[in-house]
Amino acid sequence: ASPIPRSGHAACRVAESMYVLGGIDSNTDSLKDLWEYAFDTRAWTQVISARGSAPSPHWRHSLIALGDRLVLFGGRGRSALHCFDLQRRRWSDLLTVSGVFPPARAYHVAISCGGGFLVFGGRGSSNEYFNDTFLLRVWP
To answer: What mean pLDDT do residues 121-140 have?
Structure first.
């Protein structure tokens, strides 16, 4: 099995795998599935949560690797922040965050940085464009 065709998804690398989350399909239906692509076997595996519900469908969001966690931020019309623990295979949205929390945005970029992540730019829910930068630190 492999992911269905999509756009507006997010991806990040953890160790020797790439993780892909969400997006929209060719019918513009929003997706919330999480997939792992193992570099060594060149095989896809759908990641199923052992506990906790997957967040609602997202597109034009970011996915940031922080150690053994994947952090989902933003997306079209959202200021969501969710975490997937790769070891425990579970989702949570109860993260402690330090820093000024950005307004809802999509089409932004985000990278890991010093135990947290940096968010730059994007487009807001009223189609306004941002050129701001936020540093967020998260704890489970």
So the answer is: 91
CB 3 within 8 A of CB 25: no
Residue-wise pLDDT for 50-64, tens only, equals: 787 888 899 999 999
Distance CA 104, CA 114 (A): 23
Q: In 10 A of CB 21, how many CB atoms?
A: 28
This prediction has a pTM of 0.93
Task: Show the 3-state SS of 7-63.
Answer: ECCEEEEECCEEEEEEEECCCCCEEEEEEEEECCCCEEEECCCCECCCCCCCCCCEE
